Amino acid sequence: MKLIENWFSERYSDNLQLSFRVKDQLLSVRTDFQRIDVFDTYDFGKLLSIDGTVQLTERDEFVYHEMITMMPFVYSKVKPEKALIIGGGDGGAAGELAKLGLKRIVNVEIDGQVIEVCRKHFPDLVRSFTLENVELIVGDGIKYARTTEEKFDIIIVDSTDPVGPAEGLFNESFYKDIKKILNTGGVVVTQSGSPFYQPTAIGLAHKGMKPHFAKVKSYTAFIPTYPSGFWSFTMASDHDIGKSYRELPAGKYFNKEISASCFSLPEFVKTLIT
Ligand code: AG3
Fold first, then answer.
1. β-pair partners for 54
2. 93-130 residue pLDDT tens
3. Total tally of structural domains belonging to the chain
């Protein structure tokens, strides 16, 4: 993370960074797990950064949160009633799931400070944690997946990049536990990075999921404030994803056409997962 004059930049490589002109830096805190910063940017509203990487902005968070919740919803074979979110301390994913009518949502975030920071700076997202059907747990999602006796129809891994605290969320042993707590007909999804700037992340997700699920499929979305703007998600299940479809009204990004076309991958992305 670098704040040069009034700019915040996320570094994509030694030779490239994306810079946001900022009105102000609203917060900077080092937690037991990571460093959290909040900026007020000119073009994207408030921006949350963790360890120098953009997690969300007010203006484009809808793309990520719709695509990580609506996709597993429409492709789950059972009508989803119970969901687990690992990560997602900003409440964005929980909020979208609540709108979809889920009966119970458990959200396990490892860093309580992420929740506190977002409570202050992104109240519209964090509000979902006050809903009656949402249970918020501050704890280790990997441990939770290993020890819980509850089962879920949708499991969402809303993590940071696969370095540091989130590394274990891409492992095969983690997905072994996920498999045990996913109901038959359910779907698990993880964010799997920028195919262009983080070419190993999507492969890691596949490697972690493949041994435990019959089907693993990646899809992409346009998220302007993430590296290269071209982002991937990877989902797994034991039924044929794409065969069943649960009707859902369009969101701001998601619609029925996107739900099919987002599985179309450029050739260079295909080579990352084979
Ligand atoms: N979590 C995934 C963000 C990854 C972004 N990576 C980056 N900028 N290098 C988003 C959290 C939103 N709930």
1. 49
2. 999 999 999 999 999 999 999 999 999 999 999 999 99
3. 2
